[in-house]
């Protein structure tokens, strides 16, 4: 089973010039509901069986993700989001887990906190441990959530599988590899990384700590599968990276 670990879908783009694609000062285009065929067709073209979906951190849309997964439970699984500073953060984690989402995504830089803030994050990890959700942390060369800071918060919560998105690319990949090597429950996700990054991680860690992710629509499933194939030529090991490891985290049959 080919399982992609990280992708984004957005129902409402709001007023952002960057997300709407319009010139500054122009009104945003009228809202058009997200069509799931956009992602499903690309998955089909690349031979991807299942894909994680979450909303962009600029706008948290947990109910949209819940609905999307309910429409296509055999193809899509969802990670919700919270702002840990919010008074209802723990209740929202419990709600999205009960609604069928499979994990939690955190984006410290966009939501204004440092990932090593124990007062904020320990309760989040404890809640995820209670309801059985893994956590993915956006860590794209980000001072708010460098891999060593992720290790600081995650090491006391070994029951919560923790995914470093983008492997800390660009400059923090070596640090992410060290952290994944030291912590059995920390994994590295491959979107936005170089072939050489994946090769380095594979050479140091083997195949069991790496998760293939495309971050569609920023990239695409076929491109990510090609990258993984170049970095990991062994069929058995590549099968773990392309789905077996994520299936184990999600407790699915790969």
Cα separation of the termini: 5 Å
The amount of helix comes to: 40-55%
Secondary-structure element string: EHHEHEHEHHEHEHEHEHH
Number of domains: 1
Helix/strand-derived category reads alpha/beta
Overall geometric form: globular
Low-confidence stretches: none
**Major pleated sheet:** 8 strands, parallel
Number of β-strand runs: 8
Give me the CATH superfamily: Metal-dependent hydrolases
In brief:
The protein is α/β, with parallel strands linked by helices and 254 residues long. It has one domain (3-250): Metal-dependent hydrolases (TIM Barrel, Alpha-Beta Barrel). It is built from 11 helices and 8 strands.
Can you describe this structure?
The chain has 254 residues and is α/β, with parallel strands linked by helices. The protein has one domain: TIM Barrel, CATH 3.20.20.140. Helix content is 43%, strand content 12%. The protein has helices at 17-20, 37-46, 62-71, 89-98, 108-111, 118-131, 147-154, 173-182, 195-205, 221-231, 235-250, and strands at 3-4, 50-53, 76-81, 103-106, 135-138, 162-165, 186-189, 210-211. Strands 1-2-3-4-5-6-7-8 form an 8-stranded parallel beta sheet. Helix 4 links the parallel strand 3 and strand 4 (103-106). The model has no long low-confidence stretch (mean pLDDT 95).
